[in-house]
Amino acid sequence: MQTSMDISWWHLASFSLLLLFPFAINYRLKLNINHTAILAIMRMTIQLLLVGLYLKYIFTLNSQLLNVFWLLMMLLVGASAIISTSKVNRKRLLVPVLTGLVVGLLPILTVLLYFILQPKPLLSAQYLIPLSGMLLGNSLSGNIIALQQFSNAFIDKKAQYEGALALGATPEQASEEFRQSALQNSLAPILASMTTTGLVTLPGMMTGQILAGTDPMIAIKYQIMIMIAIFAMMNISIAICLKLIVRFAINNAGLVSIQAACHPDTATYDRQGWRK
């Protein structure tokens, strides 16, 4: 098989002209998203270029201590991105979200590195950082969906929640249905993706390896491993996050402090941030 072919900067710049078509469609339909899209694309490009330079340095140095530090930064940035995108209370939900990511990622990463791949050294940047990035990146969307649905459930089903509390249910019991629904809906996209993988879609990791000249069967084995790891981490991290939210963001009286104070909900908040 051929080895991977480099893409010239000129070809990459020329290819980006394809963006003119979706921009024209958005302008014609009067969708005010072109400005946001341009900023997002510029930010993505700058971030990837900076990360590429930094990762080249990390891969060359291959310091296990530096690799662990980079992993911790990825976890913090991921948790922050989930909270800001979900528009929830950062002060009360940072610990639940971060704990869910850590507990979901580290055991799976340990199994992959220690038992399956066994790189030398064990915390090699070549494996630790890409694997962590794929697992965290794919878990972000699921966590965001879960947080948004769980948060909105306290508004959409306020009467049901307060009725359960009035009948003597604990906040955890009264919100159990909300947690179940949020977890189930957040896992729907990854389940649909796994169902159609190979028939409708060829996942990015497998495609990248094949383009780089890897034997297709080896790429397929890696992809199966990664899809299982992504589903397991997403399921574990979301379940733990939702469980901890009940303890961190709902007090004994059942008052909820999940949404950010700037959320467009009509509810008011007391000085401690509890939703009245």
Please, could you describe this protein's structure?
- The radius of gyration is 22 Å and the shape is globular.
- By secondary structure, it is mainly α.
- α5 (90-117) packs antiparallel against α11.
- The chain has helices at residues 9-15, 20-28, 34-61, 64-86, 90-117, 125-156, 158-166, 171-174, 176-196, 204-211, 216-249.
- Residues 261-276 have low confidence and may be disordered.
- It folds into two domains: 1-61; 64-249, no CATH class.
Topology:
Blueprint: H1 9-15, H2 20-28, H3 34-61, H4 64-86, H5 90-117, H6 125-156, H7 158-166, H8 171-174, H9 176-196, H10 204-211, H11 216-249
Helix pairs in contact: 4-5, 4-6, 5-6, 5-11, 6-9, 6-11, 9-11, 10-11
List keywords for this structure.
mainly alpha, 11 helices, 2 domains, 74% helix, 276 residues, globular, disordered C terminus
